[in-house]
Amino acid sequence: MPSCDKRIERHPILPSRETRKVAFTFNGMTLTGVEGEAVSSALFACGIQIFGHHHADGSPQGMFCANGQCSQCTLIIDGVPLKSCIVPLAEGMVVESLEGLPELRDLPGPEVRPPVEVKTGVLILGGGPAGMAAAVELGERGVDTIIVDDKDRLGGKLVLQTHKFFGSVADCHAGTRGIRIAEMLQEKILGMDPVKVWLESVVLGVYSDGTVGVRCSDGYRIVRPEYLLVATGAREKSLPFPGCTLPGVYGAGAFQTLVNRDMVRCAERIFVLGGGNVGLIGAYHALQAGMTVVALAEGMPCCGGYKVHADKIRRLGVPILTSHTVVAAHGRERLEAVTVAAVDGSFRTIPGTERSWEVDTLLVAVGLEPVNEFYRKAVDFGMRAMVAGDSEEIAEASAAMFNGRIRGLQIAAELGLEGVVIPDDLQEKAEVLKSPGGKVFPYRPPDELREGVFPVLHCMQEIPCNPCMTSCPKDLIGTSGHPIMGIPEYHGGCIGCERCVAVCPGLAVTLVDFRRSAERPTVTVPFELGEWLLEEGREVTATDWEGEVLGRAVIRGWKRAAGYSQTLLVKLETEAAAAARVAGFLVQDPSDIQPLPEPLETPLPDEAVVCRCERVTAGEIRELIRSGIRDLNQLKAITRAGFGACGGKTCSGLIRRICREEGIPDDDVTPFTDRPLFAETQLGWFSGREDSNGRR
User: Does 474 share its domain with 575?
Assistant: First the structure.
């Protein structure tokens, strides 16, 4: 019987949690999990990542998105086929693999009350940063507001973010961790009388009569809002390559959900695909959880995420392979290895450049796409509606909060409230915070400084961030450029308080101190991987701002940063000539992350599965497109691609991509017809059912 011990017992940022253990069965085995956690997370904690096998080809099925968007984690739970990543675990649950097609069973309907109609001023779909920020603005102005979210708490992706946020300290909590920002906003919203919060509630559809259907824990509610705000966030894109559906291959967001929300140790050796902020941060979160990251691949010549995020993992020993992509994932029942290759300027793989690594996990972080179906329907039906956050445009959470504030104020004004003023600089700040990162300037460490104490700012890219400037008690750090986007500059006079080192979201500030010794100065570096990795007197390999090895340094002590207790300030004794260039030290042994001596044989690209639900390959799609098919509904009828339980959410973008690769313009392609309901639901929810108390 599996041992349910794959939990993260200690984490440098996340505290241990009080939990109630419950018993459940999986395929007849009695297991234990944490009450209320996702069923899929409970199985992962017991070392079970293979949930069943597909009826079409016997392929192993596991998990991909952990967000209810795909259907790869479907299990039979108490007799009903459900997505296990969004079903909370309860005592005595009977969970079974979906082997083959599910049998039709005579099951009782849900014990819920008959549908009720609810009227409100504003209905907000999504309790992430944009939705919460809008709810605050509306609640402060007395607007009756309902905010709906399918999770057990507000926060959206903020609850997965253990890192400190960028942006402005005054405007969007820069320097504060995402998990804490989520708590702050939720506390504020729960204290507002005009705002009602419906958690663990799934929006099923926006209808032509101006109503919105919501499945709540106690029944189906038909909401008639005066105004609808869609802030449902984004879903992760996938990438087709042979083996892409193996258990162990999943989205970076799914990984963060398992590790940072549910504290499940779901991996040991990880490869990351994608050098945007999501992939870079996912790699860092893996290191925080004590996992090995063998490498990160990015198809472009440089990473698209903030340079400080890339440098941060390089300094810890993670190789970043630009102009590379994954060509195959290998394994029988689950992922065992991954093969990557270099790509040319047209993203074609270069023969002979293949390398393979043994890994048990591949994080796919190749971008996000807006979840905006509800907004499109609302517009079609003539409802008063707006869209906010990632549902409108993919950007950082700080930008989503600003965008949500703006939408909340705009809706209040359109509802006729007097005195609503939208500050002139609000939109400007929102645009600044959307910046993906600007120009990278040459790095000029102050090598000539060999006395006193001074900070070194290893941040040379224009990004929206100012905590180092606002934290200095003597205002010694400023910028000659934009107050938020400009490159920080040190102006002299440091007193060695270390605040700038502690607050920097990119861990890109160090403090060099020659006061004790001119030959062996001390360099204070920020560290967020746990004190159990530190040993006073131990030699470490010091690295510069981009991870290049500088030589040996000695740990002379560490302490918790005042006001930032989860950030450790590590004292490194180093050579004087290298002191100003020291930005961190390796935590991964290079010998542990070497590729295999010879690359593994890779299947043909056409073998990649595009439609996970129905196991339709890229080759099948290409053949039909080349035969002249341009209507995706016709393609669906022939192949069943898009017919599955996810409703075409995961494959539609991939099919459109294949069309473009075949030279077919988007305007020539007829998209899938939208399904009337966003999520599969038992019919009993729409009618209500008499329960044991005679309630109908």
Answer: yes
Pairing type for strands 219-230 and 385-387 reads parallel
Q: Cβ(354)–Cβ(341) under 8 Å?
A: yes
Q: Which residues, 6+ apart, have CB-to-CB distance to 444 below 8 Å?
A: none
| Co-location of 576 and 651 in the same domain | no
Residue 81: other Cβ atoms inside 10 A: 17
For 333-358, the pLDDT digits (tens) are 999 999 999 999 989 999 999 999 99
- In a domain, residue 11? The reply is no
Domain co-membership, 495 together with 557: yes
Distance (Å, whole) CA 505 – CA 281: 12
Single-letter amino acid, residue 342: A
- Length of the chain in residues, anyone? 696
- Nearest Cα to Cα of residue 422 among 436, 408, 434: 408
Residue 663 sits in which domain range? Answer: 605-696
Helix (H) or strand (E) holding 185: helix 178-190
Mark which of 330, 348, 364 sits at the end of a domain: 364
DSSP string, 158-170: GGG--SBP-B-HH
Q: What is the DSSP letter of 376?
A: H
Distance CA 430, CA 590 (A): 41
Q: Are residues 190 and 277 in the same domain?
A: no
Query: Would residue 439 count as lying in a domain?
Result: no
Q: Which pLDDT value is given to residue 426?
A: 81
Please give the Cα distance from 559 to 105 (Å, whole number). Answer: 60
Residue 147 burial class via C-beta count within 10 angstroms: exposed 0-12, middle 13-18, buried 19 and up: buried
**What's the CA gap between 382 and 363, in Å, rounded?**
40
Distance CA 320, CA 331 (A): 24
The reply to whether 342 falls in a domain is yes
Angle made by CA atoms 598, 604, 610, in degrees to the nearest 5: 120
- Asked if 355 and 340 count as a contact pair (C-beta separation under 8 A), the reply is yes
Average confidence (pLDDT) over 137-147:
97
Are 92 and 122 in a shared domain?
Answer: no
461: how many CB neighbours lie within 10 A of its CB? 19
Q: What is the CATH number of the domain that holds 324?
A: 3.50.50.60
Euclidean distance between CA atoms 292 and 265, whole angstroms: 12
Eight-class DSSP state of 68: S
Would residue 244 be called left, alpha or beta, if left means φ above 0 and alpha means ψ between -120 and 50 degrees?
A: alpha
Looking at the chain, the whole-number percentage of residues with pLDDT higher than 90 is: 75
The last residue of one of the domains, among 541, 568, 593, is 593
Going through 210-349 in order, the beta strands assigned E by DSSP cover 212-216, 219-230, 234-236, 249-251, 269-273, 292-298, 320-322, 324-330, 337-342
690 part of a folded domain: yes
User: Could you give the CA distance from residue 238 to residue 240 in angstroms, rounded to a whole number?
Assistant: 7
Provide the phi-psi class of 479: left if phi over 0, else alpha when psi is between -120 and 50, else beta: beta
Same domain, yes or no, for 243 and 120?
A: no
Residues 224 and 267 occupy one common structural domain: no
Say if CB 466 and CB 168 are below 8 A apart.
yes
Query: How many structural domains is the chain composed of?
Result: 4
Same domain, 214 and 314: no
pLDDT digits (tens, 9 = 90+) for 233-282: 999 898 999 999 999 999 988 999 999 999 999 999 999 999 999 999 99
Task: Give the model's pLDDT for residue 112.
Answer: 83
Measured CA to CA, the distance from residue 461 to residue 482 in angstroms comes to 12
Task: Report the distance separating Cα 358 and Cα 87, nearest Å.
Answer: 32
Question: From residue 675, how far is each of 381, 480, 640, 648, 649 by CA, in Å?
Answer: 15, 53, 15, 9, 11
The partner residues of 477 in beta bridges, in order of sequence, read 490
State the CATH number of the domain containing residue 682.
1.10.10.1100
Decide: 400 and 447 in contact? Cβ < 8 Å: no
b vs e for 382-405, b when ≥16 Cβ sit within 10 Å of the residue's Cβ? ebbbbbbbbbbebbbbbbbbbbbb
